[in-house]
Amino acid sequence: MDSMRRSRVSPRIRGWRGCSDRPPLRAGGRVSRPASRLTGSPGHGAGAILPSLRGGAVAGRVVLTVLLLAASMTGSGEQILPPGYGMLGYTAPAPGTYELPVLDDAADGVVLSSDGREMRLHEVFGGANVLLSFVYSTCRDTAGCPLATAVLHRIKQRLQQAPEIAGRLRLVTLSFDPAHDTPEVMRLYGEGLKGPGVDWRFLTTASADQLAPILASYNQSVMKEYDEQGEPTGDFAHVLRVYLIDREKRIRNIYSVSFLHPDLLVNDVETVLLEQDKRQW
Questions:
Q1: 80 CB-side CA count, 13 A
Q2: How far is CA 222 from CA 28, 134, 211, 219, in A?
Q3: Across the strands, what pairs with 245?
Q4: pLDDT tens readout for residues 207-220
C-alpha cells in the first residue's frame, strides 16, 4: 500500500466519510481501545442502532425484536462482538489508494419485493452501485444476520448526511427463508430500518426452488438446522456474506464477519465511485 500514490478524494466524498463515528486515530494507526469490545457507551456499537429502530411502527418492532436483542449487550453489560458493531481497530487504506478488481458478474434471479411484486434482481439493482446482504429475519446469531443489518444501518445513517452518495448506492437485503419471510414479513422487518433519502430494498422469493439458483450463483451456503427428532428448528447454518456490486452489475468485494465493518465498506464504495468518476473525465 505504501508504494501506491494517494488519490485526492473529492470534497463531497470526504464529507460523507466525515459522518464516521470513529474517534481520531493515534499515530501508528491504532485506536486506544479494542474495536470489538462494547461497553455500552452512547453513540457507538450495536447499542447505537436501538433508538432509530424503536422509532418504527409497532408491528415492525415486533418483527425486529430478535435483532434488537441480538445486537444489545447481556449479562455483565459487556460482550465480545464482531468488529462491525464497534470501532475499527486500525487505519483503513484511504479511498482511491487501492484497486478493487472485478471478482465475478453479479447473478440475476426472480425475487419478490416487499409489496409482493415479482421482479428480477437486476431490476432491483437498477443502475446503482449495490450493497447486497442475505439474511433471515429470525436469525439470533450476533455474528450473522443481525451484524449485516446493523452494519448496513450504520451506513444508511452516513448516507443520510451525503445525498450525493446516497443517490449512487442502493442497499438490498434478500431473505433466504421464503417459507417464513413473506413479502409482508420483509416489509415489517425493514420498516424500522429504512430512512428518508436512502434506498434500502427488502426482498424475498416465492419459494426455496426460486431462491436456490440465486444462492448457488453467489456461492451463499445455507443449510436448515434440525432438532434431535429430525424436525426443522427454524434456524439456518450459513456463512455471512455481504457483496459490493458496481453499477455494471459486477462483484467488486465480498465481506465476511472479520471484514464486515462500516468504515471498510464506506472506503470501498468511495473507491468504486472515484473509479467511475475518473472514467467519465
A1: 1
A2: 40, 10, 11, 9
A3: 130, 251
A4: 999 999 999 999 99
Q: Hey, what long-range contacts does 31-35 have (CB within 8 A, 24 or more apart)? A: 31/87, 31/88, 31/89, 31/90, 33/87, 34/86, 34/89, 35/83, 35/86, 35/87, 35/88, 35/89, 35/90, 35/261
Q: What pLDDT shows up at residue 26?
A: 28
Residues composing the chain: 281
**Start-to-end CA span in the chain (Å):** 25
Calculate ∠ Cα 14-16-17, nearest 5°. 65
Whether the pLDDT of residue 4 is over 50: the answer is no
DSSP 8-state code for residue 89: S
Q: How far is the CA of 138 from the CAs of 72, 178, 199, in angstroms?
A: 15, 12, 23
> What pTM value is reported for the model?
0.76
Q: What is the DSSP letter of 215?
A: H
Instruction: Please answer whether residues 172 and 218 qualify as being in contact, where contact means their C-beta atoms are separated by less than 8 angstroms.
Output: no
Sign of the dihedral through C-alpha 32, 38, 39, 42: positive
Nearest CA to 88 out of 16, 42, 145, 154 is that of 154
Among 245, 192, 237, 194, which residue's Cα sits nearest to residue 217? 245
More confident residue, 24 or 70: 70
